[in-house]
Amino acid sequence: MLKFNKNYNKNRIFIIALGIIFAIKYLPTHLSKTQNIMNAADLKIKNLVEYKNQIYTITEIFQGAGRDYFVKIENDTQSISVPADSLKPIKITEEWLEKFGFLRTYSSNERIRYERPETFIKYDIDLSSKKILEGLKIYGNSIKCKYIHEFQNIFSCLFGKEPATSNFGLLKTES
């Protein structure tokens, strides 16, 4: 049985639960198994992506004269438009988790756990070769989430805002 604390009413819990279901079912990343190519349908404005070994923020997504999608990306030094399929996802690492406000709370030979200030958001790094336990955990629900843009999409879907990062100039706190 769920206990509702003063800060969360039943409607908010219900909406978050629906968001979790949406995230689990409808936000999988479509990456080619042989190339690290991203699908334009998985991208949204403010996603962090890699292009030519540099990190960029997506500022626009548009369709060209044909059926191809293009994105406008920018970082501290440049702003350019490129084909969406030329972008690469950024793998979630311990460094990235810390930039997104996670703190290491547990470590063993099998697993490393990171948690955000919201006690219901965790990320487990499975140190075994099978990687069964690896991924995002929200209210105890496991969500396959290997890349930064997936985390950003899930977070903004559930909470209506972008996740804040620290010590990284590309993404600022959104309220």
Strand content: 25-35%
Strand order of the largest sheet: 5-6-7-8-9
Instruction: Provide the number of structural domains.
Output: 2
Low-confidence stretches: 28-35, 167-175
Report the span from N to C terminus: 31 Å
What is the arithmetic mean of pLDDT?
80
* Rg estimate, integer Å: 17 Å
H-E string: HEEEEHEEEEEH
Categorize the overall geometry.
elongated
- Count of alpha/pi helices: 3
Strand element count:
9
Main pleated-sheet profile: 5 strands, antiparallel
Which class of secondary structure composition applies to the elements? alpha+beta
Q: Helix fraction?
A: 10-25%
What can you see in these coordinates?
Strand 8 and strand 9 (141-143) form a beta hairpin. With 175 residues, the chain is an alpha+beta fold. The protein has a five-stranded antiparallel sheet. Strands 1-2-3-4 form a four-stranded antiparallel sheet. Helix 1 runs antiparallel to helix 3. The protein has two domains: 40-86; 91-175, no CATH class. The protein has helices spanning 10-26, 94-99, 148-159; strands at residues 48-51, 54-63, 69-74, 79-83, 103-107, 111-115, 121-126, 135-138, 141-143. The model is unreliable at 28-35 and 167-175 (pLDDT under 50). It contains three helices and nine strands, in the order αββββαβββββα. The two termini are 31 Å apart. It is elongated, with a radius of gyration of 17 Å.
Write the SSE topology.
Blueprint: H1 10-26, E1 48-51, E2 54-63, E3 69-74, E4 79-83, H2 94-99, E5 103-107, E6 111-115, E7 121-126, E8 135-138, E9 141-143, H3 148-159
Antiparallel strand pairs: 1-2, 2-3, 3-4, 5-6, 6-7, 7-8, 8-9
Helix pairs in contact: 1-3
